[in-house]
Give the backbone structure.
Amino acid sequence: MDTETIQPEDMKWLEKGVFGIAWSDGHQGVYPIRYLRLHCPCAACTDEWTGELKLKPDDVPMLIMLKDIQPVGHYALRLIWSDGHDTGLYAFGKLRQMCQCEVCQPNKDQAAGKKTSRRLL
């Protein structure tokens, strides 16, 4: 199944600040809220032509909250943030690729200098 046809089937909080999405391909996605905000795909946060992130970590409060999630057609989610930002449309395919679980990001714990890893799902 390619990422263009994948749909979210269920969403829930996995732990404080970490959101989970069950995808139609059977994958259990893991999405830290601050990561999602820092990687907002809107034109103000991400360069439309290069894909380079324009948003800097200092631009986002350390305590950012997801206030609401709104479906956009059958292709994206609009995330409404506690900092007032709400213009990012997270296309399902892109959102699926942004997963931060151990399967999708197997080297992130090593890169962060962590000796052990812990499964969230």
About this structure: Residues 31 and 112 are 17 Å apart (CA to CA). Confidence is low (pLDDT under 50) at residues 110-121. The radius of gyration is 14 Å. DSSP finds three helices and six strands in the chain.
